[in-house]
Amino acid sequence: MPEPAQHADVVIVGAGVAGLSAAHRLARAGVPAVVLEAGPCVGGRMSTEKVDGFRLDRIGRLLCTSYPELRRTPGLDALVLRAFSPGVLVYSEGRRHRAGEPAPARRAKGAFHTARALASAPRVPRPRTARSPRPTTPLGSPLDHARLAKALARLAATPAPRLLARPELPAADALFRGGLPARTLDGFVRPLLTALLCDPDLTTSSRCADLALYAYARGRLCVPEGGADALPELLAAGLPPGTVRTGVRVRAVSANSVTTEEHGELRCRATLLATGARAAAELLPGLRVPDFHPVTVVHHAVPEPPLTDPALLLDADRLGPVAHTAVISQVDPTRAPAGRALVSSTVLGPPPPERELRAQLAALYGTSTADWETLAVHHDPEAVPAMPPPHDLRRLVRLLHGLYVCGDHRGTSTVQGALHSGRRAARAILTDLGVPLAPARGSVPAAA
């Protein structure tokens, strides 16, 4: 740790993905930074617990291969993403149904397959008469699927600025003004958005919901190989040695100094707050603290995978507290030891009663959960900042010359939003310091 009153060009408070992203961009521009983290490791909410060979994410946020910031952020070239199978599985009326499979990349960007690919599990044909109704599934008729495919393809092909110019409503209200049948919305769109936004009531801004569906239609849902902490650890490892200092608690900040409990004052030319919203407001009274969506992630070790498909499983019938679940070791085999399987389930609220949780999982997977071992229950009451309308997707990152703030509470409450806010903050710092921002290029390989 620098000695008291030592000078640094930029001090970044918080070693989450937003702060680490900003540090990379400053380093590329030749501006040295020091990142101070109060915790014992980097990553903030993107942390992973290791238990008996299992890798257990504390907050299981879903990523998408189409996130632009995963390609633009320096330091992430070596990140490997493990993709879920195309589309999702939706549990409804006692069965699992495949829905929402994106088209191959060689076809039009974000275009979805035709109604055939969006249809649910095969049905047994039966004779029709003139009075026989057209056969339907819990997710809607083939015509409903065709309408959904057309709507999502049109959304994926729409430039993002046009999406952001649309009238803003709560997502739940906007859905039912789009012309899609209620069965399709309740059977697919609502549970999907609930999983992507961590908002069971869909009070989120419709613009944020449009961006979430836009990303889904143009890519694949995925997770970092090895656990969520792989992303921030990779960012930290790519910074110059000594940049990140853990176990350092900051108790005061200003435009030209940061005061720590352990090491006194550190002088600087600029200070960047890259903590969560509440911690930032404690250091800078007056910053708005948003409401939050609480999230609980429950991890079970199972002898055999109850589902071999590496798919995200949604509950359209809302049988219980679980919003979505997956045999995550089928998606990323590195998350479980050989001969074991890992089921990770997300509850959008407080930890539920064990009996209620297991009963729902038994129904979703169609198997007994009596021999499932509970490895961990991770709860965060402030896991995801809420984004009700009107929501500013580009909240100010420059508070004044020399004092800046970034994080998922400054844009969208996603990993994409956190990385993007770090980029915006770094650009503002470099502009004020009179240093040109170096271009960033990179690609993220996705494992099958």
UniProtKB/TrEMBL annotation:
<dbReference type="GO" id="GO:0016491">
    <property type="term" value="F:oxidoreductase activity"/>
</dbReference>
<feature type="domain" description="Amine oxidase">
    <location>
        <begin position="17"/>
        <end position="430"/>
    </location>
</feature>
<dbReference type="InterPro" id="IPR002937">
    <property type="entry name" value="Amino_oxidase"/>
</dbReference>
<dbReference type="InterPro" id="IPR036188">
    <property type="entry name" value="FAD/NAD-bd_sf"/>
</dbReference>
<feature type="region of interest" description="Disordered">
    <location>
        <begin position="119"/>
        <end position="143"/>
    </location>
</feature>
<protein>
    <submittedName>
        <fullName>FAD-dependent oxidoreductase</fullName>
    </submittedName>
</protein>
<dbReference type="Pfam" id="PF01593">
    <property type="entry name" value="Amino_oxidase"/>
</dbReference>
